[in-house]
Amino acid sequence: MTARSAGALASLVVLGAFAIAGCSGFYEIPIETPIQPKMDVTGFQRVLVAGFVSGGTEDVDANLETVRLLRSQLRTKSPLRVIEADVLPLAEIAVEQSNQNREHSPTNGSTDGIQAVSQLPGGASASTPAAAADPKEPKIKNDKDLQKYDKIFADVAYWKKLGEEYQNPLIVTGTVLFTPHQQAGFVTQNREVYDSFGRRSVIPMRTYMERKGFILEPRFIFIDGRTGATLYSEKFREEVLYNAQQNTPALSSYFELMDRLMPSFLSTLSAQKIRGTRVLLK
Predict the structure, then answer these.
(1) Rounded Cα distance, 96 and 279, in Å
(2) What is the per-residue pLDDT across 94-146, written as a single tens digit (0 to 9) for each?
(3) Would you call 133 helix, strand, or coil by DSSP?
(4) Cα–Cα distances in Å, from 132 out to 116, 125, 128, 257?
(5) Distance of CA 278 to CAs 31, 219, 220, 272, Å?
(6) Which phi and psi angles does 159 have, rounded to 5°?
(7) Cα dist. 53→49, 125, 153, 242 in Å?
């Protein structure tokens, strides 16, 4: 850098400092950033949050709680009218459909690709009496179990018939897996320390810790009630871990995790706004 360019740079710095010093202060103004919806729902006036195939822990009825929460959010943050209806027990409906297909099959099997009842977590096989199952054990424990229920979401006739009952709305359904989780390992924590003069400082320290919590994995499926066809599908995953000695109710953790992904769900149906502030100098 030459002496001339260095002098010019120094002059700019000095002028900038005088400009800032000359300002009597600053103020914040609110700003909003619009986010366009992922789906075009202009063809719908009503929305039906029908029900979910849920699994994981039985401490939380994920089907019922998810329907209640989504309906509550859509009432205030969506232009669509929310339909009030009974929550569908989709897992039970899927088992009934599997039973009917087996009975009507010429070979008494699942020749059309639909899972047999003995293969569904909710159905009892011939070799395992239903009474032998532990009632406290969840019927659906993981993603592999959920996949056995996917046939119901591809049943166009079923969803079209449901849509006709409620004046052809947009139907929201899917799966919800809410499972307990444990993890042990080193984590970084900030610890306060004071020197001999009483001055406080914060230093990061790695500590071995056992933690427990929950994992929430919902998959939202949007179905056209006029045709029964799937319009859009999106899956999320959220996780929360607490100190092993901390006793956090499962329902509280469920709402905490749902609160994180709710903006993403709502942005599928309607334009959302991210609010923030911008600092301006006087």
Answers:
(1) 60
(2) 888 878 777 666 555 444 444 443 344 444 433 333 334 444 444 888 889 88
(3) coil
(4) 19, 11, 7, 34
(5) 7, 36, 35, 19
(6) -70, -30
(7) 13, 21, 10, 27
Residue of 158, 167, 180, 179 whose CA lies nearest to 51: 158
In 227-238, which positions are buried (b, 16+ CB within 10 angstroms) versus exposed (e)? ebebbeebeeeb
CB 199 within 8 A of CB 267: no
Domain boundaries in the chain? 30-281
Q: Where are the beta strands (DSSP E) in 57-156?
A: 81-82
Residue with tokens 């159905």: 123
Instruction: Burial-class residue 271 by CB neighbours within 10 Å (0-12, 13-18, 19+).
Output: exposed
CA torsion sign for 143, 149, 154, 156 is: negative
Closest CA to 175 of 54, 49, 62, 48: 54
Query: What is 5-34 written as a DSSP string?
Result: HHHHHHHHHHHHHHHHHH---EEEEEEEEE
Which H helix or E strand runs over 102? helix 90-104
DSSP secondary structure letter of residue 123: S
**Partners of 32 in the beta sheet?**
275
What letter would DSSP give residue 43? Answer: T
Q: What is the pTM of this model?
A: 0.70
pLDDT tens-digit map of 226-263: 999 999 999 999 999 888 888 889 999 999 999 999 99
